[in-house]
């Protein structure tokens, strides 16, 4: 697909290509826009309120980009409202998403590529979320170091509906202290004020920021950095990943003082601490970014949290439904990216027994799927014998063809074994 940003529509011929331009002009340079479009295209994503996907937007911008660019430069551009959708969460709740149009995602991504190198170095070193060269595992490793040093009480703070409560005036004020380009500030304010379309009706408010725009993580870090700096000034040991913040202290008494401090600091930003999800508690068994800590011979170790394991099993059940109408090979091919991604995220885990149990559980489910797909007892008998099972074992399994789960527990372990799953390409967690 041809890029919607070409030489002739990106910059007028008489516009100089030199340094010293404003941030908005730098964001709209051809090479920056090409990189932004490549990123937006790679991220895919649903259409916004205009109903245009990636391909349709590309065709539209090939003709209309000069007009859009002129509106951006003059300050006349008005972003479309985000499309509000609700998706289920693994724990049974719901999450609201705000999906910008592909055009607005392109513009925001172009801005991000210019703003992030300028703003990111000003953030606290204890902020890890959505920053270049940093990841969730870095945050968890830092937290473990604090616990190992004797700070075994955590002040675990969860902000209630953070993105819905972002105050536009406060955010623009904090952003204005980092960048001086009024055109960029005006455009970002327009994005904040664009509102959301819900059931065909546009709702606007003076607070809230879309969660799923490319700029949203950077803007969240701009707003929350103020709290990070105050914690630094007071000498606290903490880590923050997006709106999840943990402060590690040596006693519950100190923890309650820190909790009171955080409520005041967040209150100044018009943010609210979620009382039901926040706590001053032992650092052991308290989940952080999907991990937990446990103690073995005076060494603090990593583990996958119980909640993360439960969510993992729920997702595996969804991906391996027995009525999906796919061959076992197709099921495994579909399952592989999720397993590899989950294993990479939880690579710090030091509980090999948990990995082995999850591996056995996954193979158990897949054996049951294979039995169901063979259907008839004669087919089960023939296939098992072909795979090396004795006639006695094959006959015993074939006589109970409807008991897929129970039949997958014993004899099939020796026939549909590790080597068999390895040949099908099933990744091992352990």
Automatic annotation (TrEMBL):
The keyword Oxidoreductase does not apply. Its EC number is 2.7.7.49. Residues 1-22 are annotated as: Disordered. Residues 68-293 form the Reverse transcriptase domain. Signal peptide: none annotated. It holds the Pfam family GIIM. It catalyses: DNA(n) + a 2'-deoxyribonucleoside 5'-triphosphate = DNA(n+1) + diphosphate. The keyword Nucleotidyltransferase applies. InterPro entries: DNA/RNA_pol_sf, Group_II_RT_mat, GrpII_Intron_Splice-Mob/Def, Mat_intron_G2, Reverse_transcriptase_msDNA, RT_dom. CDD domains: RT_G2_intron (cd01651). Keywords: Antiviral defense, Magnesium, Metal-binding, Nucleotidyltransferase, RNA-directed DNA polymerase, Transferase. It comes from the Bacteria. One of its GO terms (molecular function) is metal ion binding. One of its GO terms (biological process) is defense response to virus. PANTHER family: NUCLEAR INTRON MATURASE 1, MITOCHONDRIAL-RELATED, PROTEIN YKFC. Belongs to the bacterial reverse transcriptase family. This is RNA-directed DNA polymerase.
